[in-house]
Amino acid sequence: MTTTDRTADLFAYTLRLADDAAILGQRLGEWCGHAPTLEEDIGLANVALDHIGQARALYTYAGEVEGEGRDEDQLCFLRHERQFNNCLLVEQPNGDFAQTIVRQLFFSAFMLPLWRELKASKDATLAAIAAKAEKEAAYHVRHSAEWTIRLGDGTTESHERAQAAVDHLWPYTGELFELDGVVERLVAAGIAVDPASLRDEWHATLREVLDEATLRLPPDGWFQTGGRSGRHSESFGHLLSQMQYMQRAWPGLRW
Amino acid sequence: MTEKNTPLWEVFIRSRTGMAHRHCGSVHAADEEMALQAARDVYTRRGEGVSIWVVPSSAIVASDPTEKDVMFEPTASKIYRHPTFYEIPEEVGNM
């Protein structure tokens, strides 16, 4: 393999991690000022800021790997819809509070072991980012798990809404475990984490939480796909138009 | 959400340098675990703490403000209780 191929793979992989974090951060940010309670308003904003912090580090590194002078702002705010490679799960609209919480649980229960394994990456920068993100993900799992348990095992209405969220979002979880050439080659090189190796732990986490929440884990069936190759949900364009407004209206704008 | 479902909790934080937990505010939460999380999310966003206590506000027994004079007035004249009349050797450090 040539250095150029390796560089292209590393750029693509880092960019995916960055896109996942940025888009989920953006979605969670939409709750700011609208959450059911003041405490949760701040709680969700904290999670959003964790993700945006991860995205900044990853975009910056992706730009360095690419070596074409693109910085975090250009990668986050000046790419088009089809150029984003985040998984479909993170871009799903917030829906009700249960949907936001279940989305977070599905994603963070996957990211926690991923960051933990990525700490052993032969790429020192990814390993360093993973070490910081692991602690954040651990809290995200705890926060979303405790809420899922209380919603599921709460009132009739909260149970119904939580189960509806689980059923609705389940088809978007298959994509987390997709393996393509980029990941395959980087796994072989000791740089990336094989998502398949995380599946049992992810499943066990969800089973434990959903059992306690008296919620039903849907059977594996047909799964949505497309995010990793830039094919997104209808709502994604609206998300980008809001997220990218400032840089598009005033290119190069800085704080 | 009603007060009944999400009662009030008093939050105490021990800072990195502090020896004791200090009262810093309150949160509404359904139970102990959620109160801890809410306290963490609301009151430790800027690295304020290394330990949190949450206590149901209803568990706090407070003095009656109307008894303020009875409770606290008698100490006003006992200035000898303040250690300002003593020289503290430097080796003792902070008291």
UniProtKB/TrEMBL annotation, chain B:
GO molecular function annotation: phenylacetyl-CoA 1,2-epoxidase activity
Record keywords, A-Z: Oxidoreductase
Gene3D superfamilies named among the record's database cross-references: Phenylacetic acid degradation B
InterPro entries recorded: PaaB (IPR009359), PaaB_sf (IPR038693)
Pfam families cross-referenced by the UniProt entry: PaaB
First and last residue of the signal peptide: none
EC code: 1.14.13.149
Name of the protein this chain belongs to: 1,2-phenylacetyl-CoA epoxidase subunit B
